[in-house]
Amino acid sequence: QVQLVESGGGLVQPGGSLRLSCSASGRTDAVYAVGWFRQAPGKEREFVSAIDWAGHNTRYGDSVKGRFTISRVSDKNTVYLEMNSLRPEDTAVYYCAVDRSGVGLVTETAYAYWGQGTQVTVSS
Fold first, then answer.
1. Beta bridge partners of 72
2. CB 67 within 8 Å of CB 12
3. What is the Cα–Cα distance from 48 to 56, expressed in whole angstroms?
4. What is the pLDDT of residues 16-61, one digit of tens each?
5. Distance from C-alpha of 35 to C-alpha of 49, rounded to nearest angstrom
6. Average pLDDT of the chain to the nearest whole number
7. Are residues 14 and 86 in contact, defined by beta-carbon separation less than 8 angstroms?
8. Using CA atoms, how far apart are residues 57 and 67, in angstroms rounded to an integer?
């Protein structure tokens, strides 16, 4: 059992920056990876980024490469998503999730535990 809490969402102007956090608790000893996904109104849920629990491997969706950075703080069991050069198209509810299967970092169905999400709105 893993509990996840996201925070850091809000309203920012285009070109601005925002940092999201995902705090994990419970049986984190069995965690393989933590991923970030997002879903905008009228669109399907989209893979954003992921990191393995050891922090050795990362993945990014094509739309955020070069703009977003994922990292993990082990002593706090917290994963961060640094978002730069934000665009209106980045507006969505952002979710963090935990994968314990080891299938892969970008396989959405492998993520069994999900947080409640945090709203990110990019608008002028």
1. 79
2. no
3. 17
4. 999 999 999 998 888 899 999 999 999 999 999 999 988 889 999 9
5. 6
6. 94
7. yes
8. 17
